[in-house]
Sequence to fold (81 residues):
Amino acid sequence: MDMPHPPNAPYALVVDDDFLVRMDAETILEDAGFHALSAANGVEAIKLLEDHADLIVLLFTDVEMPGGPDGFELARTTARR
Fold:
């Protein structure tokens, strides 16, 4: 049975173009007490970051992703925000 997270639980952003990896990472982080946001690529992740930058405390990202910033650039962008 899933336990609800407290409203002040930290947020994690999971970014991976592989759906199964993304879902597994979300489950692991939610089991660890995080609220998990997810994106399939760097462009989606930057949009989530723009909307939730003040809440996100952890970034879990793939390094090589098609169609936009790779994981390294995403990490640099996240750190600047």
